[in-house]
Specification:
alpha/beta, eight-stranded mixed beta sheet, 12 helices
Length: about 475
């Protein structure tokens, strides 16, 4: 787009006039509107002529809770049953099925690539008879609400590019995360909390791969759209509580004076990031009242607390974060992301996987049941999955009781529930070894396009111009997988 300095200057004068009349209160409202001030500047300009107001059509979902299982959960042991592999225990996986060039340097020097069938039972659940692993027995009770996708695939083979791909639509860091895109496109439904909140937890097993702030970052979008991280230890949000000797009145006075200084600076420069700063300071002030109430579980019933499991009161656990996620959803937060680490099981997978599922299965089921009981599952989209899957061959020594699995991107499994998703179905199919997709393949762009669609967004029309080109979450790819929609 050609730079137009006169028009830019006139726009700045207009905004200066607006802020001088409306003041800080209106600036803070910018994070609340479905079509907020920043997005009007960015994607609703007549000059672009590419994007209309959002949502583009009636949405099925008002919000998303994304349960990201960081590390690569084993599809073979959880969601993609292959009972016939039991007869091939210990046999070499044919190179025609798994060629050497697809093996990572962590296992390609092995002398043997022995077939490792899952030692876990798969049972049928619900009226649909959907098959799921015994390790997910609690989640499986909601099988008739769940759509399992077995045909996800990605080119990424290492954790960082793979998780970055799932979250931003690119293996290369720097793009906005999916939560930031939704915050940018749809705004927030609440004035008391951010539109986008991220949380993390670690399993009782291994620590897992590191998580980086850019996974919930805004990339090249204005920074007002980045996710707010709730920490898993100490104060959930830094400086959320007033220090000793500072009361609410003093904090309010400080914010008012700080806002005036920022308005003066904005009038001088017209820098949009100053608008962000004003809005975020105001939001932080409101969060000082809303966050302590959010984290106070005293009004939750005993039955609800028991439903989420024994770790629900322990900060930094998946159970604790699942209950917070439901409370955030109730309060109008648009996108809630839970990262749970520890799914990278290269060795001793059965023992480690049992621990992971013990930490996550009951809280996941509780979240689904809790949302349904409150009438919220119909407009809350739940997404569960990781960045890739695991190999059918054993990494390291194979025994009847234990094995490891290396990274595998050619196929992996995720599941969705709620907000117009067909429940009790399985979409996509893999070969007999769960190595390659043979039917209805899906890539991360397809998943993201489908998520956006359920929120009333045409993924091809959610655009942000940056450095001479139009960007979108799905880049130049992606299709809405309508076969899984109700």
């Amino acid at each position: 787009m050609m730079h137009q300095p006169i028009q830019d200057y006139q726009n700045q004068i207009t905004r200066r006039h607006f802020f001088s009349r409306a003041g800080i209160a209106t600036a803070a409202l910018s994070t609340l509107l479905g079509r907020d001030l920043f997005a009007n500047d960015a994607i609703n300009q007549e000059a672009t002529g590419r994007v209309t107001r959002l949502p583009h059509f009636a949405p099925k979902a008002r919000r998303v809770i994304y349960l990201f299982q960081s590390g690569g959960p084993s599809q073979l042991d959880l969601l993609d049953p292959k009972p016939q592999l039991k007869d091939r225990f210990g046999d070499e996986v044919p190179t025609s099925v798994y060629p050497d060039e697809r093996k990572t340097t962590m296992s390609n020097a092995q002398s043997s690539f022995a077939t490792a069938p899952s030692i876990f039972k798969f049972n049928r659940y619900g009226k649909s008879g959907l098959q799921m692993s015994e390790l997910l027995a609690n989640t499986a009770k909601m099988a008739d609400k769940i759509c399992i996708i077995n045909s996800m695939h990605t080119q990424a083979i290492n954790h960082d590019p793979a998780i970055t791909m799932m979250q931003t639509g690119s293996q290369v860091p720097g793009r906005p995360s999916i939560g930031s895109w939704l915050s940018y496109g749809l705004g927030s439904e609440t004035s008391e909390l951010p539109a986008f909140v991220a949380m993390s937890s670690r399993g009782s097993g291994k620590a897992g791969q590191p998580l980086y702030d850019r996974l919930w970052g805004s990339g090249f979008l204005p920074s007002v759209y980045q996710g707010v991280k709730f920490r898993n230890q100490g104060a959930p949000v830094l400086d959320i509580y007033d220090p000793p000797g500072v009361d609410a009145s003093m904090r309010r006075t400080m914010l008012d004076h700080l806002s005036k200084l920022n308005e003066i600076k904005y009038a001088q420069s017209g820098d949009k990031e100053i608008q962000t700063r004003i809005a975020q300071y105001e939001l932080a002030g409101r969060m000082q009242a809303s966050v302590p109430e959010l984290l106070d579980f005293s009004q939750e019933t005993k039955s609800v607390m028991q439903m989420y499991g024994p770790q629900v009161r322990q900060q930094g656990t998946f159970a604790h974060n699942c209950l917070i996620a439901r409370r955030l959803a109730e309060r109008g937060v648009r996108f809630i992301q839970l990262f749970h680490q520890g799914w990278d099981q290269h060795v001793s997978l059965p023992g480690q996987l049992r621990k992971q599922c013990r930490d996550t299965d009951q809280p996941t089921a509780a979240l689904l049941h809790d949302l349904e009981a409150r009438g919220m599952l119909d407009d809350t989209l739940i997404v569960w999955g990781g960045e890739f899957g695991r190999t059918v061959y054993s990494q390291g020594n194979l025994t009847k009781a234990s094995y490891g699995r290396d990274h595998h991107g050619n196929c992996y499994s995720v599941w969705l529930a709620g907000a117009g998703i067909q429940g009790g179905i399985r979409y996509g199919k893999t070969d007999d070894y769960s190595v390659n997709v043979v039917e209805n393949g899906m890539e991360p762009h397809d998943l993201n396009a489908t998520i956006l669609h359920q929120l009333g967004i045409d993924h091809e029309r959610l655009i942000y111009p940056y450095q001479g080109r139009d960007f979108r979450l799905t880049d130049v790819h992606g299709r809405v997988v309508k076969e899984i929609l109700a």
